[in-house]
Amino acid sequence: MNQVEDSTVRGFFGDSYAVVARFAELLAEQGVLRGLIGPREVPILWERHLLNSAAVVPLLPSSGRVVDIGSGAGLPGVVIAAMRPALEVVLVESMERRTEWLSEVVSELGLTNTTVRRARAEDLHGVLSVEIVTARAVAPLERLVQWTMPLLGAGGALLAIKGRSARVEVEAAAARIRALGGSPAEVLQATTVAGVDETTIVRIVRETVRGPRSRRT
């Protein structure tokens, strides 16, 4: 990032910039070594990953619980936690080496609003009931909704950060979404700072919940 871009990004992140910048340093220092990002991604961490993740934040409530499924390197979950300290953020990841990384990051950044849970999304069906589920680069939408919609209470929403195939995935998943009590999917284009590509986000609200109610933990 050049100085102009750096100033713009600082303004965008505001009070959370220092925490997000430290997260960027950790990713640059250890991300490739630990298999979290590719070597070519280090020079474009802000554009490709951090701002892309931050684009979902304006769609979040100011308080409540957010579950980030398949957190991996911590994207978007760690960015969300840094930018919305009043939210309770749960980072869900099934791979042990990645949960170890996430726990280290949460501790290093002092994210007291964040917990790390080693599990698959399916393991938490009937265990967690939340307002928002986020996911980024986890799975095609048809599979993702099967994993994530049961975690949402009525009126809760899945926010899936997607790429260029978003509309194709929405069409393929439409029947599955309806079966799970979801509203028709919205494909949104979210912006962050000038010069950075828009982020495509698929939003699906769970309108009806069938079967026994989940117990919150």
Question: Which keywords apply here?
Answer:
217 residues; alpha/beta; Rossmann fold; 7-stranded mixed β-sheet; 7 helices; 7 strands
Written account of the structure:
With 217 residues, this protein is α/β, with parallel strands linked by helices. It has one domain (53-205): Rossmann fold (3-Layer(aba) Sandwich). It has 7 helices and 7 strands.
N- and C-termini, Cα separation: 42 Å
Query: In one word, what is the shape?
Result: globular
Helix tally equals 7
CATH topology descriptor: Rossmann fold
H-E order: HHHEHEHEEHEHEE
Sheet with most strands? 7 strands, mixed
Going by CATH, the architecture would be 3-Layer(aba) Sandwich
Q: Going across the biggest sheet, name each strand in turn.
A: 3-2-1-4-5-7-6
CATH class: Alpha Beta
Radius of gyration, in Å, reads: 17 Å
Write the layout of secondary structure elements.
Elements: H1 3-13, H2 17-30, H3 45-54, E1 64-69, H4 77-83, E2 87-93, H5 96-109, E3 114-118, E4 130-136, H6 141-148, E5 152-162, H7 166-179, E6 186-190, E7 199-205
Parallel strand pairs: 1-2, 1-4, 2-3, 4-5
Antiparallel strand pairs: 5-7, 6-7
Concise summary:
By secondary structure, the chain is an alpha/beta fold. It has helices at residues 3-13, 17-30, 45-54, 77-83, 96-109, 141-148, 166-179; strands spanning 64-69, 87-93, 114-118, 130-136, 152-162, 186-190, 199-205.
